[in-house]
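Protocol step 4 of 6: structure prediction from sequence.
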Amino acid sequence: MKALSTILLLILSNSFMTMAWYGHLKFSEWKWFEKAGLFSIILISWGIAFFEYCFQVPANRIGIKENGGPFSLIQLKVLQEVITLIVFMSFTVVFFKHESFKWNHIVGFVLLVLAVFFIFKKW
């Protein structure tokens, strides 16, 4: 249950992170943001990123072995990175339709999944 909770919280966290980091690139398409200056966009992104931390911190605290969770620190980090890529790729497909994934992107993603396999493998 702690593994699933950790993963779900990381997915939520990364959804907010992706919106904070890249969502502002779409703000100019919304009428009420078209005149916002850079400082305003930074403040809005910080506000969105606050919610990232509201999910990230509990995910790491629940998930780490030292607190009774199933993951080592290294496993948590690799898991978070792969979740970040999955969320980012989904976000890109939905919101940035002009972007396309090429073969080298897929190969890189497969290599990252292999990294997860090796990090979690019990030798």
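Step 5 (inspection) to follow. The radius of gyration is 17 Å.
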